[in-house]
Design brief:
heterodimer; A: 112 residues; mainly beta; seven-stranded mixed β-sheet; four-stranded antiparallel β-sheet; 11 strands; 55% strand; globular; B: mainly beta; six-stranded mixed β-sheet; 12 strands
């Protein structure tokens, strides 16, 4: 298996622009997680899905952030409008059971 | 709710010396415990996990951890570190039986000095 795939790997955008991050989980995994990592706040869980349904989005910082999972093999995290404080590395992870999460390589977002 | 405390944010150690990275957790229910490693500019990779059974768990790259229920700890150890072990290490906990939400610690940056 190719593992969790994220795109793009790097994104540089200007404040106010819309940003869309993409994730393809490992085939057969029914849980998908979005995390944000910064120096100041460490690794934060933003939202997670089970069988394409959002289970807990309490970590989503504000209404500018939204996430969807239209099918079992694809999820997006959208920021609209983006702000400089959104600059971070965003990770997607997937799992089948509660015994391991598999992480993607991350998307490094820079908002100027 | 579950939480994880990693007591050391940075640990410098000389090459071939032993190292211990400390992790304490709090939970009112039974848990699974994990250590992940993150090399520069990469995602997190599982080092080892405790699910049940023997409290001494062996992982990849010569690392091991011991689950201590009475002290609610899950410290990571390696008897002799290598330069390539320089990385960020995260301890995580999840509740047994329900859901897959992991709670991560703030990470420990291990620097191996030649």
């Amino acid at each position: 298996d190719a593992g969790v795939i994220q795109s793009p790997r790097h994104e540089v955008t200007e404040m106010g622009q819309e940003v869309t991050l993409r994730c393809k989980p490992i085939s057969g995994h029914d849980y998908l997680f979005w995390y944000r990592q910064t120096m100041m706040r460490g690794l934060e869980l933003l939202i997670y899905f089970n069988n394409n349904v959002p289970i807990d989005d309490s970590g989503m910082p504000e209404d500018r952030f939204s996430a969807k999972m239209p099918n079992a093999s694809f999820s997006t995290l959208k920021i609209q409008p983006s702000e400089p404080r959104d600059s971070a590395v965003y990770f997607c992870a997937s799992s089948l059971v509660a015994t391991e999460q598999f992480f993607g390589p991350g998307t490094r977002l820079t908002v100027l | 709710a579950q939480s994880v405390t990693q007591l050391d944010s940075q640990v410098p150690v000389f090459e071939e010396a032993p190292v211990e990275l400390r992790c304490n957790y709090s939970s009112s229910v039974s848990v699974y415990l994990f250590w992940y490693v993150q090399y520069p500019n990469q995602g997190l990779q599982l080092l080892l996990k405790y699910l049940s059974g023997s409290t001494l768990v062996k992982g990849i790259n010569g690392f091991e951890a011991e689950f201590n229920k009475s002290q609610t700890s899950f410290h990571l150890r390696k008897p002799s570190v290598h330069i390539s072990d320089t990385a960020e290490y995260f301890c995580a906990v999840t509740r047994r039986g329900t859901g897959n939400q992991f709670y991560f610690g703030t990470g420990t940056s291990l620097t191996v000095i030649p």
